């Protein structure tokens, strides 16, 4: 194995010269296209990559450079791919957000995503244009520690579970429904998918349920046949989990087995032992479990809906103890998830997630605090979500280019508000439910410490307040705390500055607030939004930008639309 020897030599040299010689470039050629597929045994059209759904899993090592040459084979729409959880430090144009970091890639065109994966962890990627994530454009991205480094925990083998939710209505029809006046809600998903597989017509555990669904009769070769995790007794396994759901908040459990959370969003956790776990859209985790149960049996791994009245059956896969036959169904009923609206349970689960000892600590003080009120509103009869009464509408020219080149007409230059009125009562529907569209940017001073308080409120209807998982691009933030009711400056005394977890996604619970802190140290323009696809589509997001003057030359392909395209043409003709 000549190449292995060269690689080894390179690593030895690297130790001497203290450099990153071992870092590898990994090249991928991808084509995005629509294809027929039956994710839940019902044939549909999905957005696939290289003929696969979900898209190919990327495995890399920390420090590697990825080159993904993405060709858009969709006949009539643009596409982009966002690398969820990757910082894109020095390559903000590769963040894959249409209208923010780049122009959508036109049909027939190719864009090369070049970026470094700098931190080991569990990540995923997904479409970030229109509602393409709902169409099935997603896949796993796993970054292992660099050679010679060790994870702070031991395991004998690993599995990867990418969770999502699936509707029988196409994402285009969903988009029209959501944008109609009056709005037509998309409802609950028909099926939950694990690694792109679920069963709509039948249940693996029909024997145990009193529902009318029939027992599945699958050969195993179907596109919807469940994954089986084959394990050896008395070993420890790492389960990597990512949620790419469009809507559903989930709870995962392994029958008879405890799990220990050790990683979240690419950051190590103080080991936290649980019998089931909540997981919100945009979050990733690693959990360890030990195969210490009776080896002559198989066990269920279940994924259930939380936070909304469930109308979607549990997703199930089988944990198979070798050499027991994998076709023996577990002889116990599947795990029962906590009640969907037991928010005390959810809050308590989330607040026990803490950083591993020795993790980076947050700065003691903030330079600026931005309070973001989350509301559901009406604009000329259209149902929208708004932040401090502005519903985000993305401009034709991506922010990164227009800010970098000072194109002043590309978006709203009015500063979006830092707070909301002192009289606003978050526990009731707003007295004035009107709102307006906005495309303004929160300009952050480079290298300053920003606090964001996400404030939840009552939606349009009385006694309704939903969960929103907020995801920040380009950074991790520390989750300083959760609280109920309206945030008050005095709540600062409750902040955890000792061992708050670093995350890129955090939820706000109904009627509550969540406090985040991050350092604005990554030159670029970054989305910060609710990860529920229909909510983002209805305006639930903001844009942050910092240090854009330090951004190096943006590739022309990222600028080939709107006012930046005009600018490029003028430069050529000068
Ligand atoms: Cu995974 Cu902007 O989102
Ligand atoms: Cu939301």
From TrEMBL:
Keywords: Copper, Disulfide bond, Glycoprotein, Metal-binding, Oxidoreductase, Repeat, Secreted, Signal. It is found in: Secreted. PROSITE patterns: MULTICOPPER_OXIDASE1 (PS00079), MULTICOPPER_OXIDASE2 (PS00080). It catalyses: 4 L-ascorbate + O2 = 4 monodehydro-L-ascorbate radical + 2 H2O. It is an enzyme of class 1 (oxidoreductase). Residues 1-22 form the signal peptide. SUPFAM superfamilies: Cupredoxins. Residues 32-145, 159-322, 431-548 form the Plastocyanin-like domain. One of its GO terms (cellular component) is extracellular region. GO terms for biological process: negative regulation of defense response to virus; response to hydrogen peroxide; response to virus. Its main location: secreted. Its EC number is 1.10.3.3. The keyword Repeat applies. One of its GO terms (molecular function) is L-ascorbate oxidase activity. Transmembrane segments: none annotated. The keyword Repeat applies. Its cofactor is Cu cation. Belongs to the multicopper oxidase family. Dimer. May be involved in a redox system involving ascorbic acid. NCBIfam families: ascorbase. This is L-ascorbate oxidase.
